[in-house]
Design brief:
This protein is an alpha+beta fold. The protein is built from 12 helices and 18 strands.
């Protein structure tokens, strides 16, 4: 009884532990943190020098005694120790006084992760100071955060394009009926742009430069009016700094293969969808979430390829963390969708 009373005052936490960004939702407060999933530390890795935006600004610019890395890759933990330190830093930044009971934490994960990867996320959450850790598959979290009626007996198709993964899932009656997770997302788009510029112009550019190009002139289909952007980098022939001008048409071509992989994942999911749910999706359409969904023309391309209406969710970058937050508010309602350590041991 005392625990139940104390629990009412504990600020439980929902986390979208993404490859590109980490978002934190605190029960009763909403989204309180949205930072890049980047950590900077000394060579001995004992102390975090910076995390989030400050650390991202250091990528590719650090001196010999400092390392700035992204501990998440393709939606899963690439460096356990650094991920645990990053989580602890972000949780402590949002909850300064934990109280008598440690917070319960719901973390969004890609639907295609292995049991080992699930345990790694749970362990990282526990080591970061959480009492109980629950996992919620990202497509379900995104659907909840987008406001879809996931508990009803009707099909909802969600396409969540993140930094490291793209999650495509059909959701009905509070569960995932069929899904496909591919390790392709915004990061692969940036890499494709970097590779294109390297091949076409012998120019080496950094990850952040590629991302800026993607945001400025990137598109999944050719724009009605061509746009241009200046790109600064290092000439691979002379070794000197150089500036070239690239067009939106070139960037669309550079992104074509990555976009096609996302489209194919949606097609394959639809092919495995039961007929009754497929009829629901035809009526309700496809909902897109995630930062990668903001790529211009991606919704139009999906609509052309599937023949179904496609819409972008409101504030698509925060749908997953909002979904984890709503799951926190009604844990009993999502008990069948939540994964605990007992379910992966």
């Amino acid at each position: 009884m005392l625990n139940m009373l104390l629990r009412r005052f504990v600020r439980d936490v929902g986390i979208d532990l993404g490859t590109t960004a980490t978002l934190v939702y605190v029960k009763g407060q909403g989204i309180v943190l949205q930072e890049p999933s980047v950590v900077a530390f000394g060579r001995d890795k004992d102390e975090i020098i910076a995390a989030g935006s400050n650390a991202k600004a250091m990528l590719g610019r650090t001196p010999a005694g400092i390392v700035a890395i992204r501990p998440m890759k393709d939606g899963v933990i690439a460096d356990f120790d650094i991920t645990e330190k990053m989580l602890r830093y972000f949780i402590s930044k949002t909850i300064r006084h934990a109280g008598l009971l440690a917070p319960r934490v719901v973390i969004g994960i890609p639907s295609g992760v292995t049991g080992v990867e699930k345990r790694a996320v749970i362990d990282a959450g526990r080591e970061a100071g959480a009492g109980e850790v629950f996992l919620l598959e990202e497509p379900m979290a995104a659907a909840v955060g987008a406001g879809l009626p996931v508990q009803e007996a009707g099909g909802n198709l969600i396409v969540d394009v993140g930094g490291g993964t793209t999650e495509v899932a059909v959701v009905s009656l509070g569960g995932i009926v069929t899904s496909r997770s591919i390790r392709v997302g915004g990061d692969e788009m940036n890499e494709a742009i970097s590779l294109y510029v390297k091949k076409q112009y012998n120019l080496l550019i950094g990850e952040q430069t590629a991302e800026k190009i993607k945001i400025k002139i990137g598109s999944a289909c050719h724009l009605p009016q061509e746009e241009f952007a200046d790109v600064k980098g290092r000439d691979l022939v002379t070794g000197l700094p150089k500036v070239v001008t690239v067009s939106s048409r070139e960037i669309t071509e550079a992104l074509a293969e990555t976009v096609e992989l996302i489209v194919e994942a949606v097609r394959m999911t639809l092919e495995r969808t039961p007929p009754e749910l497929a009829a629901d999706i035809l009526e309700r359409g496809i909902v897109m979430t995630g930062g990668g969904a903001l790529l211009r023309g991606l919704d139009k391309r999906l609509q052309e390829e599937t023949g179904m209406p496609v819409r972008l969710a409101e504030d698509p970058e925060t749908c997953v963390v909002r979904g984890t937050g709503l799951a926190l508010e009604t844990l009993d309602l999502f008990s069948s969708a939540l994964i605990s350590k007992r379910k992966v041991s």
